[in-house]
From TrEMBL:
Its main location: other. Keywords: Signal. Belongs to the bacterial solute-binding protein 2 family. Gene3D superfamilies: 3.40.50.2300. It comes from Didymodactylos carnosus. It comes from the Eukaryota. Transmembrane segments: none annotated. This is Periplasmic binding protein domain-containing protein. GO terms for molecular function: carbohydrate binding. Pfam families: Peripla_BP_4.
Length: 316
């Protein structure tokens, strides 16, 4: 099986350490707005020097394709790999392969549940428990009681599972009850019929929670098309469309925000530092914040979800 990939070629530098052009690849699980922003973050990280040739590759959320893809780039003598893993287990296998091949390896979505240092040189830590607590806390404050529809990314996936567990724990023993707990596969178009079916069976729903901005867009589209304005909807992360919905403050009220572009920017900077100077940070914490209409623009100015200067380098 072959992964889909896109390469960004850069001019051979005049002066680089060891007179070498280093090869870097980001191996991403899926293609959507979030991973487009991740790609932009990587390109920004290496834009300040011509000592790197950067590439994107995609695995269609398949752990076997993921392992084959990482193996391929290792055999092609890549110097650094950053991965948005299909699962913690698949990331471990890839990390061990990279380690024993002396290839630097970074995890773009690290949710700590074991010691990652045997597998990764650098991790971007995303506090999924905090995300779940933000989602639950917001509904406790602004809804208080009633039915909730939850749309996870992928049921059983590590990120979705940790967010879901934290959310359920937060609303436990409150007036909020989960009527539907489904999945939208991080896809706007898949999410629309999911929310349509969920609301058809639960027309008295008071709140909706979506575990990604892409799925948040799908819910917002459905609510707007059907004139449903009395349901409180909170999402996770952000994109251009979701930001506009939050500014409108009708079909999306808030998001538990973190930036995918920051994950690749930080890991890219650590890869660059390690290769050029021999020093880098293992732990790189990604900021997670509650974002509403009132603080949206300030947060995005400090912590953007995209870098438009690099959008033309993304193949979709």
């Amino acid at each position: 099986m072959n992964s889909h990939s896109h390469i960004q070629k850069q001019k051979t530098p005049q002066q680089c350490p060891n007179n070498k052009v280093y090869k870097i690849v980001a191996v991403l699980a899926i293609q959507n707005k979030y991973t487009r922003y991740v790609g932009e973050g990587m390109f920004k990280a290496f834009n300040s020097t011509n000592c790197f040739k950067t590439k994107l590759a995609y695995t269609n959320n398949d752990p076997y394709v993921e392992f084959e893809t990482v193996h391929k780039f290792i055999t092609q003598k890549y110097d650094g790999i950053m991965i948005q893993p299909v699962s913690p287990e698949s990331a471990q296998y890839c990390g061990l392969l990279a380690k024993y091949s002396s290839v630097l390896f970074g995890n773009l979505v690290w949710i700590p549940n074991f010691n990652g240092k045997p597998y990764f040189n650098f991790v971007a830590t995303v506090d999924a428990v905090k995300i779940g607590n933000i989602l639950g806390g917001y509904l406790i404050d602004y809804v208080n009681s009633g039915k909730v529809i939850v749309i996870q990314g992928i049921i059983g996936e590590r990120f979705s599972s940790v967010v879901n567990q934290a959310f359920l724990a937060k609303i436990n023993n409150t007036g909020l009850t989960v009527a539907v707990n489904s999945q939208g596969f991080y896809d706007q178009n898949i999410t629309i019929p999911v929310i349509a079916q969920a609301l058809s069976g639960n027309p008295d729903t008071k709140a909706i929670v979506t575990f990604s901005g892409e799925m948040g867009n799908g819910v917002a589209i459905y609510l707007k098309q059907n004139g449903i304005k009395n349901i409180v909807h909170i999402s996770v992360d952000c994109n251009v469309e979701l930001a506009e919905y939050i500014r409108e403050n009708i079909y999306v009220r808030a998001t538990a925000y973190y930036s995918g572009a920051q994950t690749s920017l930080l890991i890219g900077e650590q890869l660059k530092a390690k290769l050029l100077s021999g020093k880098a940070n293992y732990q790189n914490t990604i900021q997670v914040s509650l974002v509403t209409k009132s603080n949206l623009d300030d947060i995005l100015q400090q912590d953007p979800f995209e870098y438009n200067a690099f959008v033309n380098r993304i193949p979709y």
